[in-house]
Amino acid sequence: MFVARSIAADHKDLIHDVSYDFHGRRMATCSSDQSVKVWDKSENGEWHCTASWKTHSGSVWRVTWAHPEFGQVLASCSFDRTAAVWEEIVGESNDKQRGLSHWIKRTTLVDSRTSVTDVKFAPKHMGLMLTTCSADGVVRIYEAPDVMNLSQWSLQHEISCKLSCSCISWNPSSSRAHPAMFAVGSDDSNVTYGGKVQIYEYNENTRKYAKAETLMTVTDAVHDIAFAPNLGRSFHVLAIATKDVRIFKLVPMRKESTSTGPTKFEVQIVAQFDNHNSQVWRVSWNITSTLLASSGDDGCVRLWKANYMDNWKCTGILKGDGSPLTGSSGQPTAMSTVVGSSVQTSQNALNGMSAGRIGKRAPFAPPLRQLTSPKINQHPAYY
Amino acid sequence: MEEVDVEPAVTNIPAASSGTHLGFAWGPGDILVYETLYKASGTGSGDIHEVRKDEDIYSPILRKLFNESHHIFVGLQTIREDLPSKNKKPQFVSISKNYRSVIRACMEELQQVSILLAIELIWNLCEVLFIDAAPAGSLLLHLLDWVRLHKADVDEKAREVLQSESPAEHRDYWDVPGGTQTLTEFDVKWRHWHEEVDRCLQDNSFASNKHLELICKILVGDEDTLLEHKDLLSTWYHFLVTRLLFCHPTVKPTELHYYAQSCLTMFLDSRSVPEPLDSILLAAFEFDIHQVIKDCSIALNNWWFVAHLTDLLDHCKLLQSHNLHFGSNLREFLLLEYASGLFTHHSLWQLAVDYFDHCPEFGRVYLELQIERVPLDTERKALKVLRICEQRQMSEQVRSICKIMAMRALRNNRLGSALSWSIRAKDAAFATLISERFLQDYCARGTFSDLDLIDNLGPAMLLSDRLTFLGKYREFHKLYGEKRFREASKLLLSLMTAKIAPRSFWMTLLTDALPLLEQKEVSHHIVRYAVYGQVLSL
């Protein structure tokens, strides 16, 4: 892997979240500087900041995009105990020429009495629904019944999880085979309080969410949680960022026809990685759920992949090098240029290959002269 | 089978300071990485870095490889299953050669020797050993071709030197096995000849001519002599084939690995470590297809090669006999990986669709997930994506894409476009909403926009009541404009009585009726209008 491009984010303080939109052409960033910025990717791949505005009166923890079926809509949540919904207004023509757009606040959700730690839109087949969780241990689900009027949101559900909440994740599956479901993680560090991950499921009869499962084996603070895209499987896969990276499989057990309670699950642990050797703060799946990324206290991002035998392995590490921008060859490089990736790029010179991508795998080509090559260190296509 | 322990590659992210955390966000084809701190305290700002896999999909030359191999792939999938295998084998060999010729065509364009050379080398060997499955006798000839082809690619100069001792010369020395004689006959003859030459060497018959003596030593495959001339045989597999040629020309496929291993060992000096390519070739000589695929997956960071080769081997039914239930899963796994990689490219994603189509277990769901994410930059592109979804009855994706386009049009106040996308999405609610807008527009401005669209709604009009009303109301205006007052009035009345008119519009309808009442043909409608007006006032 290599750094293809670097973007000067220009926030005045720490960036807490970066979120791509659905099509990968726009991104939103939020920061302790209380603002959100929206960036658009041009045809040549360059990012331009098209909007930047103050959103809250405290650090903004997360920012997230609604599905484009609902238009251009963002939600943010903050230390200031609120969450907000923003909509892009199609601007004046001279604004467009200057590449600017305007976002206006459609609503502020003020129900939380403490910092709002996460905000997520529910899967689109449920309509336009927004979920927040707070340090006060409450999960709130809001709905906008009229998608053309984003200033009207009603609080549909208020769920008390009893422990301080740090993260939520909806099961993205729209299959009719199972009801809507989300997971909540708690960063409460008292291990005697039991399971720090709770799974809630919607009940058609009571029209309420009920707790279906608590993962009792997760006793340490949970910082992030992520359901994997479903891929038509009958079971669910959930990744958790806690003192290590854990991947769980939740297999729904067959329901009795008379049973009206939530589904019972068989919970299996699929993988557990402590390579970060420290707290893991974020986990997130790629679109096809073939890769999981995690970020830890060790300052690294690790990529995890399962081979076709379902064995999980770390297939890449992104590591902050804690030094000013220099290429690994020791030459200083300008911003926004291709920076060499791993330290083994000097291989290219040895075999007289071109600097193109192909050349980077030079050690593998048949020898022109008799060279010995070290073990392949390029990013392997792990199968 | 042993798991090769490969260390994960480390990529350095330029960070302004140490001790920070790295945040990340998955994107299509890349991952954004930025400095942050997950504990609340601390300040700082920084850059966002776009991190990507080294990927060949951005290479214009390899694009040709991807395009042409896609064509071959699709052709391979459509070979009829019910043909007897002896008819299929030549087809498979031909397909294998097609793939290889595509590789060679790309090699020609890439000026320098590259990974493609290694790929072609391995593929060629796999074709000889697995697909063509050359038996003893012709096996060696195939291997000779293999080595010679490769040599020609790599080293012009070496070829010149080689020609002076070219196997071809010697090949003419005796009849080609399988031509006019059986393998056994050939073997006997060859052994006889070999003994002759050996005896001559022992007798020192050639002592006077060192050069001739050297040649003879080579001809009998004298190991030491061959090893002395190692530098002419730049690789151990060339050494292997040469040695086989002179020592065991009737080598059987099953004996190959023994010779291969010993040649590799002899050829490398004690300090050398076998390279990945060597292990792969060795695994091929051992007929361990699974190991070949696995080693290639690890050594190459592009899925193209393993995906296409495995697919071909699977069609030859070589994976199934070799490995149990995961034979076809492996094929699908690799194809899915390859195709997913293509999907992030702005034009190659269309090739990926065919690959997903031929992955029976997960192809469809992978396609559904990924095709939704294709950016709908232009209407043309959106229509292209839609066509693909419609062809596969991916109705939810069709609906979603149309809805996205409709929403986008509505936000930009392009009501006609929004309406036509809503109709295509069969989204009644949205169609109602947009019809309302049209009607509001009419009330405000007195005219309709997008008349063409509304006039030509056809049966689509029935999607929603409001849309029907819109269409019919516009029709009323047309009739009035054409002075067909009787029909206009009839239509207007039916609109009132059918109750599809929105409440907000009733006054407008009555007002529309007023000028009509002045027309003689319509006067008998007065009573009905009056009744309607009474109903309204209640």
UniProtKB/TrEMBL annotation, chain A:
Which protein is depicted?
SEH1 like nucleoporin
Keyword rRNA-binding carried by entry: no
**Family named by the database record:** Belongs to the WD repeat SEC13 family.
Q: Positions of the WD repeats?
A: 8-40, 273-305
Q: Does the keyword Nucleus apply?
A: yes
Please name the Pfam families in this protein's record: WD40
Where does the record place it? Answer: Chromosome, Centromere, Kinetochore; Lysosome membrane; Nucleus, Nuclear pore complex
The domain of life is Eukaryota
Q: Per its record, what are the GO molecular function terms?
A: structural molecule activity
Q: What role is this protein assigned?
A: Component of the Nup107-160 subcomplex of the nuclear pore complex (NPC). The Nup107-160 subcomplex is required for the assembly of a functional NPC. The Nup107-160 subcomplex is also required for normal kinetochore microtubule attachment, mitotic progression and chromosome segregation. This subunit plays a role in recruitment of the Nup107-160 subcomplex to the kinetochore.
- Gene symbol here is seh1l
| Gene Ontology CC terms, in alphabetical order | kinetochore; lysosomal membrane; nuclear pore outer ring; Seh1-associated complex
Record keywords: Cell cycle, Cell division, Centromere, Chromosome partition, Kinetochore, Lysosome, Mitosis, mRNA transport, Nuclear pore complex, Nucleus, Protein transport, Repeat, Translocation, Transport, WD repeat
Q: Set out the biological process GO terms recorded for this chain's protein.
A: cell division; cellular response to amino acid starvation; chromosome segregation; positive regulation of TORC1 signaling; protein transport
Q: Which organism is this entry from?
A: Dicentrarchus labrax
From TrEMBL, chain B:
Q: Which Gene Ontology terms of cellular component type are present?
A: nuclear membrane; nuclear pore outer ring
Location (main, coarse): nucleus
**Keyword Acetylation in record:** no
InterPro entries on file:
Nucleoporin_Nup85 (IPR011502)
Reading the lineage from the top rank, the first entry is Eukaryota
Q: Name one GO molecular function term.
A: structural constituent of nuclear pore
Keywords in UniProt for this one? Membrane, mRNA transport, Nuclear pore complex, Nucleus, Protein transport, Translocation, Transport
One GO BP annotation here? mRNA export from nucleus
Compartment(s) of residence? Nucleus, Nuclear pore complex
Q: Assembly and interactions?
A: Component of the nuclear pore complex (NPC).
* Stated family: Belongs to the nucleoporin Nup85 family.
- Briefly state the protein's biological role: Functions as a component of the nuclear pore complex (NPC).
Instruction: Report what the protein is called.
Output: Nuclear pore complex protein Nup85
Specify the taxonomic lineage: Eukaryota, Metazoa, Chordata, Craniata, Vertebrata
